[in-house]
Amino acid sequence: MIKRHYTSSGLIVKNNSVLLHYHLKIKLWLPPGGHIEENEDPIQALKREVLEETGLLIDIINTSSTVAKKFQNVYSLTPPHTIFIESISDKTEGNHEHIDFIYICKIVGGQIKNNKWKWFTKKDIFNRSDQRYNFSSDITLTDELIDLCLETFKLV
Q1: Is residue 134 part of a domain?
Q2: How many structural domains are present in the chain?
Q3: pLDDT tens for the chain, residues 1 to 156
Q4: Which helix (H) or strand (E) holds 42?
Q5: Residue 105 · residue 152 · CB < 8 Å
Q6: pTM as predicted
């Protein structure tokens, strides 16, 4: 059975743009995010990762009809926009999968702390929608990220 890690990622949206960074190890543009640590829920992990990586404070945009609620001994979370299962090939960890809780987010504070981050406009993403990613190409946005970004622009 393949080993699985739980992760959270966030498409941060501002002015019809999404914030991405170029991941040197895998040579792709990706949104901020990372592994869910012990005792964190997916939203706590995402907020921590976004702050650590970008310097930004975020809130989750609820894209579902489900509203987070609190009861006496139970509370619910805002559900992710989607969940991806991503195949990962890593020299250290070996082959494994990420179960990635993907949220749509807005900025509520902070400032981008370095120049590793780039705002991709709706036009930037749309211009790449007819280019198909493969390992031998120089295309650095995957089909699933392009699709997710275009879907996000329709929602917000």
Answers
A1: no
A2: 1
A3: 899 999 999 999 999 999 999 888 888 899 999 999 999 999 999 999 999 999 999 999 999 999 899 999 999 999 999 999 999 988 888 899 999 999 999 999 999 999 999 999 998 888 876 665 544 455 578 889 999 999 999 998
A4: helix 42-54
A5: no
A6: 0.91
